[in-house]
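Researcher: Predict the fold of Threonine/homoserine efflux transporter RhtA.
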Amino acid sequence: MQRAIPIMFIAMSLIPAGDSAGKILTGGLGVAPVFVAWSRFAIGALLVLPFLPRGTWALMRDKRLWLRAATLAAGITCIQTALQTEAIANVFAAFFIGPMFSYLLAALLLRERITLLRSALIMAGFIGVLLVVRPGMGGTSGGPGLLFAVAAGLFYGVFLTMSRWLSDVAAPLALTFTQLAMSAVMLLPLGLLNLPPATLEVAGLASLSALFSMLGNLLLLYAYRRAPATRLAPLVYFQLIAAVLLGLFLFNTLPDTLTWAGLAVIITAGITSARLR
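Model: Structure tokens for Threonine/homoserine efflux transporter RhtA follow.
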């Protein structure tokens, strides 16, 4: 577990970096969200391709891996859809139901051990998330699109649990390639229907989004090979730390007092839960 904690921290920092590049594409350059999702998977698969271990292609026949990839593709598409119509605070609050859902699924389906204290800590982490995002406090209430954010969180919770379940099927590099390649195949028609203008700026940001996301998910798989999903679930909240810092440097969004308080709660709950035996 001592090795899994820093791996998770790095992974949860890289994934928001990929999302930030995607936000610049959709918000600043008008690129369709579904193209951002598809290009992330397609480019990520190409980046991993030269390093595939032997036997990777045989995994493409595993129906369980296709199901896992489908949950990832659906989750990314849902959250991009939600962000088109809903306030980002509401979307993040709904999306972060994912770690709690993963915690429950791991206990019910994988028979991983849960405790009252760890359950309380993951709830504390979610309270910290609410302090950071404060849904509904910006003068807007959640609309129908918020259902897509909830769906994205549920899909992500399933994806996290399946990542733990299938962590021993193959090496992390092989599993990373399958989730990227399979998701790219599923979203291929929608991606091709929403091609943006071919510019160096679009290509560069799409490549950065894919690279950061691929590395983050690869490290996530390494972490899940070392610790149970019920112990790692609270650490998923760590990506909010990177999100706040990226918002400060890229979008000039300065965190306020409640944001810092929420981050302190998230860090404390996550580290305490991870160190429990």
